[in-house]
Write a structure and sequence with these properties.
Blueprint (H helix, E strand, L loop, with lengths): L1 H35 L10 E9 L11 E8 L4 E8 L14 H12 L5 H5 E2 L5 E7 L12 E10 L5 E10 L4 E8 L2 E10 L4
Parallel strand pairs: 3-4
Antiparallel strand pairs: 1-5, 1-9, 2-3, 2-6, 6-7, 8-9
């Protein structure tokens, strides 16, 4: 009886030892992989993203100009940089800003995480129908350069008693330049997103 208990005890100790050794080896492999994984390259400061957006005309002479936001999110759907915010932020105009639903959620998250109040720092007057150019220099809302990788450019518009539009284009920032089109809808007739070398003003 004592021999059986002793053998069982030794067996359990051996099993525990094997499990511990396997866990140590696995942890070592993971730790080594984390140490050797290459870091994402920083944004090339000689490059920029140009967004060309066209606001559609309307036959309704009573229609107010749309509120429009254009911004960039990372692969985790975190708001990285607001490129434009065309709204009326005074008087009763401010009540319609939350109608830019996705941008507003991201802007609130930026502010709550210690970033700037984008409604104050980024907003400007609404625009008439026509074509407009926006640039992204690779910096986030706090002014730091981001890394290369996958991002999504969003274009959102809302209008009092009018249509709502949300367009997006996923892009990959890396060594290759590109120019992509974005199909339009409602107040945003269309857009292009181009990754290119900085152009002289």
């Amino acid at each position: 009886m004592e021999l059986k208990e002793s053998a069982s005890y030794v067996s359990r100790r051996s099993a525990i030892g094997r499990v511990a050794a396997m866990a140590t080896a696995l942890f070592g492999v993971r730790a080594n992989a984390q140490q050797t994984a290459p870091k994402a390259a920083r944004w090339d400061a000689t490059m920029e993203v140009a967004v060309e957006i066209e606001l559609a005309a309307t036959d309704d002479f009573r229609a107010r100009r749309p509120y429009v936001a254009v911004w960039v999110e990372d692969k985790d759907a975190k708001s990285i940089k607001t490129l434009s915010l065309w709204v009326q932020n005074t008087g009763r105009g401010g009540r319609w800003i939350p109608d830019l639903r996705r941008w507003y959620r991201g802007g609130e998250a930026v502010y709550k995480s210690g970033g700037p109040d984008l409604i104050i720092t980024m907003s400007s007057a609404t625009r008439n129908p026509g074509k407009y150019s926006l640039l992204w220099d690779g910096k986030d809302n706090k002014g730091a350069l981001v890394t290369q990788g996958t991002y999504t450019v969003y274009l959102e518009s809302a209008r009092e008693h009018g249509p709502y539009t949300l367009l997006k284009k996923e892009i990959t920032i890396g060594p290759k330049t590109f120019k992509e089109t974005v199909a339009g809808s409602a107040d945003i007739k269309g857009a292009t997103v181009e990754y290119r070398k900085h152009r002289q003003a």
